[in-house]
């Protein structure tokens, strides 16, 4: 099995309404998203074309989250909840007879991130 990953960034604002501290106030981040697909190569020697992966993530995730107020999409937009929301948007789209969504990472800062991985 091969793992194919692509990185993305998006800018968005949020506040954590059920949190008591700095993050309960409106603020923004430049998020980094890493999407990993696992699978077997096709006759062209690829698990998934990077362009197709980019198109799907752009359409299903980035078009909605980039330059948004995430609270209007995800009620308590912690990094964990954002990761789960993204997974739900991509799981069906990134699934075929040869490959499946394996892992996503959502970086809220360059050193703080959440990893969500498929249960095997």
TrEMBL record:
<keyword id="KW-0456">Lyase</keyword>
<dbReference type="InterPro" id="IPR007115">
    <property type="entry name" value="6-PTP_synth/QueD"/>
</dbReference>
<feature type="binding site">
    <location>
        <position position="14"/>
    </location>
    <ligand>
        <name>Zn(2+)</name>
    </ligand>
</feature>
<feature type="active site" description="Proton acceptor">
    <location>
        <position position="23"/>
    </location>
</feature>
<feature type="active site" description="Charge relay system">
    <location>
        <position position="108"/>
    </location>
</feature>
<feature type="active site" description="Charge relay system">
    <location>
        <position position="67"/>
    </location>
</feature>
<dbReference type="GO" id="GO:0046872">
    <property type="term" value="F:metal ion binding"/>
</dbReference>
<feature type="binding site">
    <location>
        <position position="29"/>
    </location>
    <ligand>
        <name>Zn(2+)</name>
    </ligand>
</feature>
<protein>
    <recommendedName>
        <fullName>6-carboxy-5,6,7,8-tetrahydropterin synthase</fullName>
        <ecNumber>4.-.-.-</ecNumber>
    </recommendedName>
</protein>
<keyword id="KW-0479">Metal-binding</keyword>
<keyword id="KW-0671">Queuosine biosynthesis</keyword>
<dbReference type="GO" id="GO:0070497">
    <property type="term" value="F:6-carboxytetrahydropterin synthase activity"/>
</dbReference>
<feature type="binding site">
    <location>
        <position position="27"/>
    </location>
    <ligand>
        <name>Zn(2+)</name>
    </ligand>
</feature>
<keyword id="KW-0862">Zinc</keyword>
<dbReference type="GO" id="GO:0008616">
    <property type="term" value="P:tRNA queuosine(34) biosynthetic process"/>
</dbReference>
<comment type="pathway">
    <text>Purine metabolism; 7-cyano-7-deazaguanine biosynthesis.</text>
</comment>
<dbReference type="Pfam" id="PF01242">
    <property type="entry name" value="PTPS"/>
</dbReference>
<dbReference type="InterPro" id="IPR038418">
    <property type="entry name" value="6-PTP_synth/QueD_sf"/>
</dbReference>
<comment type="similarity">
    <text>Belongs to the PTPS family. QueD subfamily.</text>
</comment>
């Amino acid at each position: 099995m091969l793992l194919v990953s692509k990185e993305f960034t998006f800018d968005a604002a949020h506040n954590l309404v059920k949190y008591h501290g700095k993050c309960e106030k409106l603020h923004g981040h430049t998020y980094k998203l890493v999407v990993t697909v696992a699978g077997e190569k096709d006759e062209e020697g690829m698990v998934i074309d990077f362009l197709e992966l980019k198109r799907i993530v752009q359409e299903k995730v980035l078009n909605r989250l980039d330059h948004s107020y995430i609270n209007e999409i995800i009620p308590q937009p912690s990094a964990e909840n954002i990761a789960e929301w993204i997974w739900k948007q991509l799981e069906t789209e990134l699934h075929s007879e040869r490959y499946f969504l394996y892992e996503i990472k959502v970086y809220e800062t360059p050193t703080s991130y959440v990893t969500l991985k498929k249960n095997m």
